[in-house]
Each structure stands twice: as C-alpha cells, then as structure tokens.
C-alpha cells in the first residue's frame, strides 16, 4: 500500500485504541521519538489486545505469535511529553497468521503521525511449528478486521 493511502487513514479505520504517555527516554538525540520506539508501540497495543480479547497469555498459551515481517511509515515527528493514541486493526486474518496495522495519533490530533505494523505467524509454543489459530483467538481478531465483515455482529467497534 502506498504511503499516501496509509496517510489518509482516520481514527474510524481502527477498532481498538490504547493511550500511551511518552517518556523522556523515548526521545533520541534529535529531540523526537526514536524510530525504534514505534515498534514498542506496535508490540504493546497488539499484545494488550491479544491478552484482553483473544484469550492469549504470552507465558502460558499453547500458541505464540512470532513476528515474520514489520514496517512503519513516518509522517510527522512526535516528542516527549506527547500523549499518543494508538489504533489497532487487522488487515488480513489467515489460518495461522495475522497482519496487524497500528495508527499513531497525537492526542487531540486527527492526522496520523505514523502508521505501521507487522505480521504474526502463530506457532505451537513448545515445538515452534505453525499451528492454526484457536477459535477464541480468531473471533477476537475478527472484531478488528478491516474492512469489517458486512453482516457480522462481531464487526462492531470495541
């Protein structure tokens, strides 16, 4: 997808939100949030959602998600002490994989500051072999799927 298409995303394009209060240590020597920190944002909101809505526990579930690809497009710099609103959606839901997208908004701003995400492939936590998503996990992720399924009650906003 082109950066122009990603930049046109709005808050309505995301189904789950989490607030993040930036820290002084998030800034780099150029006085803006370091690019690597954005990947912490992506990981934090995704795992918070998986734990709260998909019955997954990183330390005890039989399935775990391994990142196989990631990306981020930056549209404007952010810096401490900004408060951010992270929006999460699922762009693709496969048998054992999920493609997430995270929109990074500064609190009170409508324009995206950055958009990125990654793909998880779910594997058995012991053998590390690819495994199908459990139904409870699939149902939780389906609620974030964009575009939402047209006739599914699970497509409502969280």
Automatic annotation (TrEMBL):
Query: Do you know which CDD domains this protein is assigned to?
Result: 4HBT
Q: What GO molecular function terms would the record report?
A: fatty acyl-CoA hydrolase activity; isomerase activity
**Residue ranges of coiled coil:** none
Q: Fetch the Gene3D superfamilies from UniProt.
A: Hotdog Thioesterase
Q: Which Pfam families match?
A: 4HBT
Top-level taxon of the source organism: Eukaryota
Q: Which UniProt keywords apply?
A: Hydrolase, Isomerase
Q: Does the keyword Nucleus apply?
A: no
Q: Which InterPro entries match?
A: 4-hydroxybenzoyl-CoA_TE (IPR050563), HotDog_dom_sf (IPR029069), Thioestr_dom (IPR006683)
Q: Which residues form the Thioesterase domain?
A: 31-110
Record flagged with keyword Isomerase? yes
Family the UniProt entry places it in: Belongs to the 4-hydroxybenzoyl-CoA thioesterase family.
Q: Which PANTHER family match?
A: 4-HYDROXYBENZOYL-COA THIOESTERASE FAMILY MEMBER (PTHR31793), NOVEL THIOESTERASE SUPERFAMILY DOMAIN AND SAPOSIN A-TYPE DOMAIN CONTAINING PROTEIN (0610012H03RIK) (PTHR31793:SF27)
Record-given protein name: Thioesterase thiol ester dehydrase-isomerase
